[in-house]
Amino acid sequence: IIRNEGKTSSSSGNEHIYVRMCNTENEPIVFVPNAFSPNGDSINDEFYFYSDIPFEVLQFLVIDRWGGKRHDSFDPWNGADCPIGTYVYWIMLRYRDKVFQFKGDVNLIR
Predict the structure, then answer these.
(1) How many CB atoms lie within 10 A of CB 94?
(2) Which residues, 6 or more positions from 93, have their beta carbon under 8 angstroms from its beta carbon?
(3) What tens-digit pLDDT sequence spans the chain (110 residues)?
(4) Residue 77 per-residue DSSP state
(5) For residues 85 and 24, what is the distance between their CA atoms, to the nearest angstrom?
(6) Listed residue (93, 98, 108) closest to 46, CA to CA
(7) Which of 8, 36, 44, 58 has its CA 20 to 30 A from that of 110?
(8) How far apart are alpha carbons 28 and 32 in whole angstroms?
(9) Per-residue DSSP letter, 45
(10) Which DSSP letter does residue 65 get?
(11) What's the CA gap between 59 and 14, in Å, rounded?
């Protein structure tokens, strides 16, 4: 759930919206980027997920559009030997003795 905490305007006329994340389901809030660029510049070179709470990674799987497994590890995915494109991820985490699944897609760009 995202709640709008208020709206303010700056002297330049730009509006700023303040948002607070509220977790009413007692589930972990996990940030998963929608793109990464493994080009060796040390900026977004790996695809991984983040949270401000401790969790245990049970599975981290990345699949290409033909159904081929490109990554199956607990470690970040570096996209080595993979072409530019969209990939599907599936993440299974354990938090407070409950298992949570996250799935979606990520764009590999160079």
Answers:
(1) 13
(2) 28, 30, 55, 56, 57, 58, 99, 100, 101, 102
(3) 444 444 444 555 566 555 555 555 667 788 999 999 999 999 999 999 998 888 999 999 999 999 999 999 999 999 999 999 999 999 999 988 899 999 999 999 98
(4) B
(5) 35
(6) 108
(7) 58
(8) 12
(9) -
(10) T
(11) 42
What predicted TM-score, i.e. pTM, was given to this entire model?
Answer: 0.74
Instruction: Report the alpha-carbon angle 87-93-99, nearest 5.
Output: 125
Looking at residue 93, what DSSP letter applies?
A: E
The two structure tokens encoding residue 46 = 């790996």
Q: How far apart are CA 87 and CA 70, in angstroms?
A: 9
d(Cα 98, Cα 109) in Å, to the nearest integer? 34
Look at residues 54, 52, 49 and name the one whose alpha carbon lies nearest to residue 96.
54
**Token pair for 38:** 């493994």
Report which of 95, 91, 90, 71 is spatially closest to residue 81, judged by C-alpha positions.
71
Structure tokens at 80: 């080595």
Query: What pLDDT was estimated at residue 5?
Result: 47
Residue 99: enclosing H or E segment and its boundaries? strand 98-108
